[in-house]
Amino acid sequence: MFEIVKRDGLARIGVLHTPRAKLETPALLPVINPKLATVSPSELYHHFGFKGLITNSYIIRNSETLRERALAEGLHGLLDYPGVVMTDSGTFQSHMYGEVEVSNEEIIGFQRSVGSDIGTVLDIFAEPYWTEEQTAASVEITLQRTEEAAAMKGDMMLAGVVQGSVYPRLREDCGSSMAAMEVDVHPIGGVVPLMEQYRYRELVDVIVSSKKGMSPARPVHLFGAGHPMLIALATLLGCDMFDSASYAKFARDDRLMFVDGTARLQDMHGLECDCPACGVHDLESLRGLPSKERGAVIARHNLYELKKEMARVRRAISEGTLWELTESRCRAHPALLDGLRRVGDHADFLERHEPLSRDGAMFYTGPETLGRPVFQRYHQRSRHRYQPPFAEYVQLEERGKPHGRYQGEDFQSLLSQGALPLVRTVFGAVPPELDEIYPLAQSLFPGLSDGDAETSADAGMESFVAAHGLARSGKIPAGGDYDVNALRAVAVARYQFGDEAASLLLDGPLELVVSRKTGKIRNVLVAGEHVLSMRASDGFYTLRPEGAAKLIGGLEAPTMRVTVMDDAVPFNREGRNVFCAFVSDCDPETRPMDEVMVVSADDELVAVGRAMMTMDEMLAFSKGVAVKTRDGVPSKG
Ligand code: GUN
Ligand code: ZN
Q1: Among 196, 362, 475, 539, which residue has the least CB neighbours within 10 Å?
Q2: Is ligand 1 within 6 A of the CB of residue 617?
């Protein structure tokens, strides 16, 4: 069973509960060759802290000594490893060397008998050069074998590998067929050739199309991905597990892995690393070691580098900075940059998982940043949900953020003359009412712009003006007083909740409580009732129970709702969080961090809070918090 602890977009920090032990994700599982372990499993666990590893059940089964020992002592005894042991099935050997002499049934049975924690189906490794027909036929067999394995897995968790090569349709279909089966982990298979050939653009397509089909409640393993430079990108796209054989393979060829690429020992001019393995050496002493010992030092270096990157990625998820980290990592190699640029083509899918806001500011690190889903969201909502107060506009250049603090007087003057000031930004046109919301105010751009950013600003301006049918005005700022906050209260509500909800919420005489220190809106009262509060940090609203009461009658279900089962209602009424297991329905448009109303099966208001997940996730997970409840609503009866 898998549980999300923290998430940023598709990326997540999670816990995979296996019967033996827990595995925190994102996790890197070092590959152990049962015949020659460069670094012992015990050291991997106790010293490096790798709480899971992967080994090959096919190799163990083919060696009489290993097989007998594994059957007698179990894998954990054989390897002397207390953590989570995942086993592969021989599929990769068939990819490398042709047919394997084992059936799916036999290898699943064997993995069970030796006590594997996560066994793998004998899937068919679909090669990237296969035709679509050939691939489709092989996926059918993989699916049949997964069915067969699921029926005999017993206590063992099962990895059902998503294949389908570079064909998005086949990937997605394979993913959704797997989602319907009793499997516990979803590896994405058949990607090693893409990674070896630096085809990262296709890799991105493969990950996204596979993810679209899969159950969001199962961890995704990217089979054969074990270079630190790829971890951030793959995690950003929703991969939770990785395996690395390269730490040992590269070490045998005197190659050191770094987050920005691989260095050959022979090319180095100094040992650029002070990890515990490198730290005791200088370049000369390392080069002087006999090859086996040298390989062992480099393998440990590679493991330290991987371990560090895993921790770095986890921190980025928890801070909400994984985009920035990924953008920086992907500049290490043009092929990775290709992958990053491709991510922008999947903004629709990514936007569904994009949080309403983050704690820190968004950084513009280069033109690829324009592919982030926040840009897409702003374009859409500012065109479809915003309503301009006037038919004429004046274009202003950006002077600082939030705009109102730097050009508030110009705003007031133009508005009092009946013209809408629009600030031209890289996000597009920003009207005064929206200048405080994330990421418009919470973003940093370099002072020296670039061509793509300028094009984006022009195009954004143009499409905004066209969408609202605005005409350019000849007016210039010339003094005057206008209350922008009255417009802001409405515009932010429309942007955040949509037109219908905004009208219901703000129907009546409006009164704003404004911070005396900052001049920002704090509370919105309608006919004396406090319906919304505005957060200073991201410029969005939190919904108050009084606001929810205004919505519930007029806004048709399931909009803005999370429906919980009867058992949970009394707890949520007391203000306790909503757990996934008790969610029966949800608004499909829910984004992480959205304000939601928690309702009972007969649509009575139970609580208000913040969604932590999308609808698909709430319905698929059996564990974890779906809504962080802010206020419980006592029963009327
Ligand atoms: N190891 C690397 N790629 C694969 C794959 O596609 N399937 C399996 N079972 N193992 C792999
Ligand atoms: Zn090192």
Answers
A1: 196
A2: no
Q: What is the pLDDT of residue 107?
A: 98
The protein residue whose alpha carbon is closest to atom 5 in ligand 1 is 189
Which residues of the chain carry a pLDDT beneath 50?
none
**Active-site residue flag, 88:** yes
Nearest CA to ligand 1 atom 10: 92
Q: 206 CB under 6 A from ligand 1?
A: no
Say which ligand is closest to the CA of 279. Answer: 2
Say how many C-beta atoms besides its own lie within 10 A of residue 495's C-beta: 23
Residue 36's pLDDT is 87
pLDDT tens for residues 373-414?
Answer: 999 999 999 999 999 999 999 999 999 999 999 999 999 999
The rounded Å distance from CA 280 to ligand 2 centre is 10
Determine the pLDDT at residue 186. 97
DSSP secondary structure, 271-292, as one string: ----SHHHHT--HHHHHHS-HH
As given in the structure block, the two tokens for residue 200 are: 């990262």
Q: What are phi and psi of 187, to 5 degrees?
A: -75, 150
pLDDT at 173: 98
Q: How many CB atoms lie within 10 A of CB 53?
A: 24
Report the candidate in 234, 251, 221 with the shortest Cα–Cα distance to residue 121. Answer: 221
Q: Is the CB of 223 under 6 A from ligand 1?
A: yes
Secondary structure class of 611 (helix, strand, coil): strand
Beta strands 420-425 and 392-397 are: parallel
258 CB-near residues (< 8 Å, 6+ apart): 228, 229, 272, 273, 305
Length of the chain: 637
Q: Distance between CA atoms of 47 and 575, rounded to whole angstroms?
A: 43
Q: How far apart are the first and last CA of the chain?
A: 38
Q: Which residue carries 């599929």 as its tokens? A: 91
Q: Which of 475, 501, 464 is nearest to 595 (CA)?
A: 501
User: What domains are there in the chain, each with its CATH number?
Assistant: 2-348 (3.20.20.105), 362-482 (3.40.50), 556-637 (2.30.130.10)
Q: How does strand 420-425 pair with strand 541-543?
A: unpaired
